[in-house]
Specification:
The structure holds two protein chains of two kinds.
Chain A (H helix, E strand, L loop, with lengths): L3 E4 L2 E4 L5 E7 L5 E8 L3 E10 L2 E4 L6 E3 L9 E3 L8 E8 L9 E2 L3 E5 L1
Parallel strand pairs in A: 2-11
Antiparallel strand pairs in A: 1-3, 3-8, 4-5, 4-9, 5-6, 7-8, 9-10, 9-11
Chain B lengths: L3 E2 L5 E4 L4 E7 L6 E7 L6 E7 L2 E5 L2 E6 L4 E6 L8 E8 L6 H4 L2 E2 L3 E6 L1
Parallel strand pairs in B: 2-11
Antiparallel strand pairs in B: 1-3, 3-8, 4-5, 4-9, 6-7, 7-8, 9-10, 9-11
The chains are: A mainly beta, B mainly beta.
Amino acid sequence: NAGVTQTPKFQVLKTGQSMTLQCAQDMNHEYMSWYRQDPGMGLRLIHYSVGAGITDQGEVPNGYNVSRSTTEDFPLRLLSAAPSQTSVYFCASSYGGTATDTQYFGPGTRLTVL
Amino acid sequence: QKEVEQDPGPLSVPEGAIVSLNCTYSNSAFQYFMWYRQYSRKGPELLMYTYSSGNKEDGRFTAQVDKSSKYISLFIRDSQPSDSATYLCAMSASYNYGGSQGNLIFGKGTKLSVKP
């Protein structure tokens, strides 16, 4: 049981480039989410999904796209990278997406946009 | 004013000390409260979950919620060097995540160092 996996671990982009951050879980969890963590800001929700085919915006969705074609995978796409998107990105999953369901976080992707 | 305030520290204590970590919040609709622990360069992991007001104990950890004061605490007894990490509080107004009330709102985290 690998839990929540994220790739890549590190990435450097130039302004304007696009890329996809990968997230996968093998726990058959319905709820998956993406957060970004910035110094002095805490974790902020970007997008989330309550099941395959269903996604919605979180607190800071601008500049990011998501899709959920399978239960296991929830990729995050940066459309045109900007320096303001330099951050650590965490993917998380939980069984049912309720307050009593434990959210399991991946190890994170450290992204730098030059 | 941010919805959730948490002193970032750093907080340094000797091994064996009792540690008190706190968060205040402004949204009276919050009723689900969590504490996460995050080791350096790792993802957060859930430590404690509490619903509404009251105390909850799990081994050396005790979580307290005072909704009348909009104040939550995490106490660590007999602190160990392995407790050195950043502690994040998080809270939600809704049982179901999602929508305007259901997103988890995190504090900035308090960095704790326990010295041997």
